[in-house]
Every structure is written in structure tokens, then in C-alpha cells.
Amino acid sequence: MQKLCVIDLKTALLCLISAISAVSPASAQQELSIQSESTQDTREIVVHLPKNYDPNSEKGYAVIYMLDAGAADQMTAEIASYYHWGDLMPEVIVIGLENVNRGPDFLPHYYSFERDGEQVFGNGRNLLSYIENELIPFVNSQFKTNGNRVFAGHSWAGQYLTYALSQSPGLFDAYFITSPAFGDSGEWSGKTFEALEEVLAQDQDYPDLIYLSSGGDGSPGPLSDAGLLPSYYRLAALLRQHLPDEVKLVHEIHDSANHTSNSAISLARALELYFATSPDTE
Q1: 91: closest CA among 144, 58, 52, 136?
Q2: What is the pLDDT of residue 279?
Q3: Do residues 95 and 73 make contact, with C-beta atoms less than 8 angstroms apart?
Q4: pLDDT below 70 — which residues of the chain?
Q5: SS3 119
Q6: Beta carbons of 79 and 50 less than 8 angstroms apart
Q7: Structural domains present in the chain
Q8: CA dist 183 to 107, 167, 187, Å?
Q9: For residue 2, what pLDDT is reported?
Q10: How far is CA 232 from CA 159, 181, 239, in A?
């Protein structure tokens, strides 16, 4: 009698990544530097071009901007390549933003921290200025883009995406916010949520899609997302209540995923949700 093999979510995820590495064409990768006036330092980016990148393409390419350059942007480029190979989405450019000062850079401008005996405010506004006024124009000048932009961030970077959404909601066409880590569920995140509620009441441009996710409390241990759930539920409720009707909101808990595995699961899910229904694929 044949035995059935039952695997858990993490094992299935590893199998998926292995399959992607085996059959999907690798993207071309390059590293570039930008001297930023906004942040007064040098910013490095990792560019993942699709294997069939054509600088003379009539349609151009959507661009996915990802904080915390490293494994996540490489994985996203591979998943996107795999999805394109399966006719699920168009080819895209993935840009990973290298960290300089991750803590201060992702901290909103209205919060401060102590450094060398002095109170220093977060660099979030300057980082957003760099992204909007320097990075995006630079990428558009160097590569064949089509104006479709996605912003993705996980954990502390997911918190920063929420801040960016509250400051300039129309800057990106989609926001992928995974396992956002606000530090606590009370006062600390309150200012960001208040700023977000205020901006959503205004008549301006908004993204087409906001994807929000978290791991659940079904994965025990130090990497569990259980401690992030109060802020996640609060953010999801705020978005449900105040987002304009034309913005598609998808929020979901992956109960058996922890803080690490939720990133991979969510990025694959968000890419499918956004690009499989994009007019470019019709």
C-alpha cells in the first residue's frame, strides 16, 4: 500500500524555492551607487533585471522596490521569473535598497532616539525623499520602465512602508507590507496610524493594491509573529475603514508561518494578486 507524504508549510516553501531555482531562468544582477543629497550619503542598490530584459521594449517593465536588500529581493526576482515562465505575470525589474543606518532610516521623522547623549529624530522623511526624488528618477533614466511601481518591506521595513503610505500614498501603485513590526501595539505606533488615517481622508492619488500580512500564533518560538498581531489587526481595521473604495485591500494571517517564512509566502502571494490581474497580462 502506497504511503501518503504530508509536509508542513515550511517544508512546502523550501520545495517551492528549490523548484524555482531549478527551472526558472536566473535574472541579471548589478550593483549601482547613488550619491544622495536627501540623506547626505552614498546609497547602494542591487538591480535584478529579467533574463530577457530588452532596453527597447515598447511596454517597458514594472519595478519592485524592496527595502533590506539581500535574500528577499533575490528571492522575489526568482519568483517573478518563475511566474513569468508560467505565464502568470509580466517580467519585472526588482530593485533592492541596501541598508545604511537601518534603525534611524526606517524611523518616522516624528520619533526620536538617543545617540551620544543627544535626541536625534528618525531619518524616515529624508529616506522617502531620496526614494521619490532621486532613486525612482535614476532607475527610470537607466532602465526601460513603464511607470508601474511597487514598494515592498518586511518587519521593521514593513513598519516603514506604513509610514511611507501615510506620507505619500500615491507614490507607488502597490504596497506589500509583510509582518510589520511597530515595536508595540500602543503609543509607539499611534502617531503613524493617526497620520495614515488623516491622509486617507484627503482627496489625492492612492495605490491600486495594499497587501498586508503576518505570520500567526501557530508557529511557536522566538521567531513567532504572535507579538506583532495586535498592531497588525489595528492596521488592518484602519485600512478597511478608511481606504477609498477603489483601492484593493488584501490582508491575511498565515497561521503556521513564523516571522521568516511569512516573508517568502507573502511575497509569492502578493506578486500573484497584483500582477496576475494587471491589465498588462490581459
Answers
A1: 52
A2: 46
A3: yes
A4: 1-27, 184-188, 277-282
A5: strand
A6: no
A7: 27-281 (3.40.50.1820)
A8: 11, 20, 10
A9: 37
A10: 10, 9, 11
3-state SS of the chain: helix, strand, coil percent to 5?
Answer: 40, 25, 35
In this structure, the chain runs to a length of 282
The three cell numbers of residue 140 are 527610470
Residue corresponding to grid cell 491600486: 208
pLDDT of residue 119: 82
Name the phi and psi angles at 113, rounded to 5. -145, 160
Going by the DSSP 8-state scheme, the letter that residue 27 receives in this structure is P
List, edge to edge, every strand of the sheet that includes 209-215. Answer: 28-36, 41-49, 92-97, 61-66, 145-154, 174-178, 209-215, 248-254
Confidence at residue 27, expressed as pLDDT on a 0 to 100 scale: 60
| pLDDT confidence of residue 183 | 72
pTM confidence score: 0.88
Contact 183, 111 (CB under 8 A): no
Give per-residue pLDDT as tens, 175-230. Answer: 999 999 997 545 668 899 999 999 999 999 999 999 999 999 877 788 899 999 99
Contacts of 114 (CB under 8 A, 6+ apart): 120
Query: Cell digits for 97?
Result: 535598497
